[in-house]
Specification:
homodimer, 150 residues, Elongation Factor Tu (Ef-tu), domain 3, 6-stranded antiparallel barrel, two-stranded antiparallel sheet, 2 helices
Chain lengths: 150, 150
């Protein structure tokens, strides 16, 4: 089973795209409001999403080069061992999948306005999941200090 | 730009697979410990992950039929309008991508032991992201009661 699966590539089709009209594409801004335009035939798939204040956006970081095969990255300080890319949230990873928890500002038909999505204009969106299941929330967790400093 | 992107399918390769040795495959058990076996050449990509107590697992729900084109689902009670699949966390969705926040129990080389991953044996894993960035956590959020009842 595992061997068979390993041979397969998985094909994903975008459900929509990010539309971002910022003057500075590279600006990181947590308060930035972006637009997600879903395919018209998926409009009804958003019904009921207004009941949530926050949703996860899963997207494809299409500007990341697929040729980059980095699996570790260096730390800021010299002499420290490199960090594996699965211990980071950076965009260079085997599958450049982005995951961001955003505030849902507005839904109108097939268009969402969300706050906090740090994605480029034209980014393909793969899935949208509402936030707030008990298992989405961890009361006590451990993460290294470096994680906050990035 | 958007038109060009819309034509493209995105190809993803699994980074590893779930290995679950439960007697009852269908049992939902939040305390179940599963194994994720990463591809050997990605072993170093896990370096540093031990510093985190929780990680997001992004996976491909391979047992979900691609022919199912449902974009809404009925509610439990009669007379209620259907809910869009992007307002649910169910597995039937345009791209059957799973997202679960799990407790990291142990890492040994290319193998992770995680608690709370409700995925079938053989499930392809697409990405692993450590949990605990400030933007992963929402102090106040709104979600409907039905969300807890599923």
């Amino acid at each position: 089973m595992i061997l068979l699966s390993a041979l397969k590539k998985i094909e994903i089709r975008p459900i929509g795209f990010v539309k971002r009209t910022s003057s500075n594409e590279d600006a990181r801004d947590e308060n930035l409001v972006s637009t997600i335009v879903l395919k018209k035939d998926l409009t009804k798939a958003l019904d009921g999403i207004e009941e949530f204040s926050h949703v996860f956006i899963i997207y494809w970081m299409h500007k990341i080069s697929n040729t980059e095969k980095k699996i570790v990255q260096t730390r800021g300080r010299a002499g420290m061992p490199p960090i594996g890319i699965f211990a980071c949230r950076g965009p260079i990873r085997p599958n450049p999948i982005g995951l961001t928890l955003v505030e849902l500002v507005k839904r109108k038909e097939n268009v969402l306005r969300v706050r906090g999505l740090d994605a480029f204009d034209g980014t393909p969106v793969l899935d949208i999941k509402p936030y707030g299941r008990p298992c989405d929330i961890v009361a006590n967790f451990k993460a290294p200090k470096r994680f906050y400093e990035n």
